Amino acid sequence: MSSPKTWLVTGAAGFIGSHLVEALLRAGHNVRGLDNFATGKHQNIGPFRSSSHFQFFEGDICDPAICRKAVHGASIVLHQAALGSVPLSVLEPGKTHASNVTGFLNMLIAARDAGARRFVYASSSAVYGDDPSLPKVEERIGRPLSPYAASKLMNEIYADVFARSYGMETIGLRYFNVFGPRQDPAGAYAAVIPAWIAALIRDEPVRVNGDGETSRDFCHVANVVQANLAAGSTTNPEALNQVYNVALGERTTLNELYALLKKGLAKRFPHVQKASPIFQDFRPGDIRQSLADISKARRLLDYEPTLTVTQGLDEALNWYIETL
Fold first, then answer.
1. Where are the alpha helices (DSSP H) in 47-85?
2. Domain span at 234
3. Is residue 52 one of the residues assigned to a domain?
4. Active site residues
5. For labelling alongside 52, which of 4, 36, 97, 136 has CA 20 to 30 A away?
6. Whole-number pLDDT of residue 223
7. What is the pLDDT of residues 27-50, one digit of tens each?
8. Which CATH number is 113's domain given?
9. Is the pTM of the predicted complex or chain greater than 0.90?
10. How many domains does the chain have?
11. Distance (Å, rounded) from C-alpha 267 to C-alpha 256?
């Protein structure tokens, strides 16, 4: 990246957001953070609060005033704030819409009015919906299978409209299944990797939705950070006003994932060797198979994943063992 800039990270106390704050501060940039701690954690940004280059705002993106306050003076927005759960969106679609659509629009308007040069936002592989083709290519999507997926598709539509109507530079990043340190293992809607790690360490049942042959393109958070920084700093005009898959470009089934976690933890926790998963019904709104084509991000953003699933799990396991 070039000379220091001022970046706003929304969802700064969250799993991905806090990694972005850390990377930007390490690179010498000025960072503004916004979070309401609905899902973010105080400890995720604790180490950065003393930095003179970090300014934090506590508030909700559903409040236009705090959006305007946080984005003032920032030239690049990395918008991560959202309610990221498919099951929660099925149960409470209004809550998902408020955060993911109304809150997203509030941030777009605030960024436009503040003269922010670029708006990079977290979209999701969920927008591929019922499209059966593999790998997933950006230009071909199906119908959304959940309110969460619909909210992320709406983000892409609004970003495209703001680019056309107001000349904003927008880039959407369709995250596949992101994992790594700081991902919360607690709660009913925890992502599969931290939830399973915690259950195995505590000798609790691991529940698998379906037959275990559901596959995901698991992507370590370091790869996601790389994609965000590339999107925020690229000078390639062709890269702007696009959406990109952010993934590893490899498919892992839930059964394969379970075997990797079991192998990695059994060295430290002998009881894990005897563990067996419990299979249960498929979850409404879930996509059966997922695999990303990352050639577009490689071509236009110079994106190149640095950590494989196995390498990323090794790092993540060490963090969870220390934390749990």
1. 64-71
2. 6-176+221-247+292-306
3. yes
4. 148
5. 36
6. 98
7. 999 999 999 999 999 999 999 999
8. 3.40.50.720
9. yes
10. 1
11. 18
